[in-house]
Write the structure tokens for this entry.
Amino acid sequence: MRILKMFSAAVALTLLTPMANAADYPQKNKPIKIVVPYTAGGSSDFVARTVAKKLGENMDHTVIVENKPGAGTIIAADYVAQSKPDGYTLLLMGELTHSALPALHKDLPFDPIESFTPITNLVGSPLVAVVPASMPVDDFQGFIEYAKERPGDLVYGSAGLGNTLHLAGEEFQTVTGTELVHIPYKGASQALVDLLAGRIDVMFDLPQTPMSQIKEGKLKGLAITSPERLDELPDVPTTAEAGVPEFDFSTYIGLGAPAGVPDEIIEKLFVELTKVMEDPEVEESVGTMSMFVKTSSSPDEFKQAFVDRIAEIGETMANAGVQPE
């Protein structure tokens, strides 16, 4: 009987442990770490550090950022997937890049959905269609006609297979009935160098990357892929204004955790992160990077976004002739 009571007590303690952890979360001596799959200094890193600063202030807790670039975000994702599911290790997740992983890789060391617990989206960003200043077109429709007259001759650059810029280029071709040649670079900045030199013909890039060159007249910004114009590029029309409303394309960045984190901790993080993104200072800060605040209504909604995107991107990559390796 005594052994039975001890066993029952142990089971009860085990069942109560997640609740106790949630009640004590976060513990003062354990910093929360946001793992970024890219090098420091980029737009994703900027989002992570902006959120970490405000989250730390609001929770009166240490929140740090750790950069783990490489292998197309796989290194960082695998690190987080294998981390202890206690809410102290989080992953900055790009909806498009994370969802493209199954379409690019046969043997991932993790399941893109089941190995993670998505918490919430944080921000979104439109892209800008940009061409060299020397290209003989003055607007988005003019570029589309120019491309249709030269099927398979014009080249667009991206930051790699399955990257946001690549997916935007594939979407553009589908929507407009054009045929472009894709060249993947190791980063958007390298592609931009070739765009400025006229070695490639077009990019569909995050606005902050070519913004200064657009303002200086070294590149032509043809259209913004969102329903509203950007304050930083007020003279560049939206794709809808340019007559192609179907090409409405934004990339989203959020936060997730390893699978198995107690629901109570995920809910606490969801509430705190939503509070962070509602702060006017944070909204203004991400706005300077041509991003907009876009939080999820729930962790489940954020997870469903990945499920839907994986199916969509798999089809897009297959149509583009890209096979997982």
User: Anything to note?
Assistant: The chain is about 45% helix and 20% strand. The chain has two domains: 2-124+251-319, 128-224. The longest strand covers residues 116-126.
